[in-house]
Design a protein that fits this description.
Blueprint (H helix, E strand, L loop, with lengths): L17 H57 L12 E2 L5 H4 L9 E2 L17 E7 L21 E9 L6 E9 L1
Parallel strand pairs: 1-3
Antiparallel strand pairs: 2-3, 3-4, 4-5
Length: 178
């Protein structure tokens, strides 16, 4: 028979408390991994939220842009573009100086009863239309075979949309030839 182990055994004297130290070290490593995983998750959630806000603002501006194009297409006799109510003569950089919150300076989407308001945005999109001077327009048309010329009046539509928060903003422009 072997002798019973005792506290004075030479092999056991050096191991006393080492299991606790190893367990605490592993717990520390797991805590560090957990905190870094949470930080990564929070960052990814913020990025996804910002992307959603940007997409909402882009689609809101796109809706206002399409409404302006539809108005130009469907209106038989266009009113004067006198510098009010969202209808202007051309001015380089007008969109930089315009007060988008002034409802007498821009057209607020929806401008007609056919379009519903856009949900989940901080504010409804807005747009304005500029009547451009008669000139040859560079670029191509989306209509097959159409070539713009000086006889066709052209218009620049500038639309601004906001996302779920007012800090996500998209500004879009299109040129429309009648």
């Amino acid at each position: 028979m072997s002798a019973p182990l005792s506290r004075s055994h030479p092999r056991l004297g050096h191991c006393r408390g080492s299991t606790l130290v190893v367990a605490l070290f592993i717990l520390l490593l797991l805590s560090i991994l957990g905190v870094s995983a949470m930080q990564t998750t929070v960052l990814q959630e913020r990025m996804a939220g910002n992307l959603r806000d940007k997409q909402l603002s882009f689609q809101a501006a796109e809706a206002a842009l399409r409404e302006g194009e539809t108005w130009l297409r469907d209106t038989v006799a266009l009113p004067q573009f006198a510098g009010a109510n969202g209808r202007y003569q051309p001015d380089n950089g007008l969109w930089k100086d315009i007060d988008w919150s002034d409802t007498s300076a821009v057209i607020v989407y929806p401008d007609n009863a056919a379009n519903p308001t856009i949900d989940q945005v901080a504010g409804q999109p807005r747009y304005y239309i500029e009547e451009l001077p008669a000139a040859d327009l560079p670029g191509e048309s989306m209509v097959d075979g159409y070539q713009p010329n000086q006889n066709n009046p052209s218009y620049r539509i500038t639309a601004r949309g906001v996302g779920g928060s007012s800090s996500a903003v998209s500004v879009l422009q299109s040129t429309y030839v009648r």
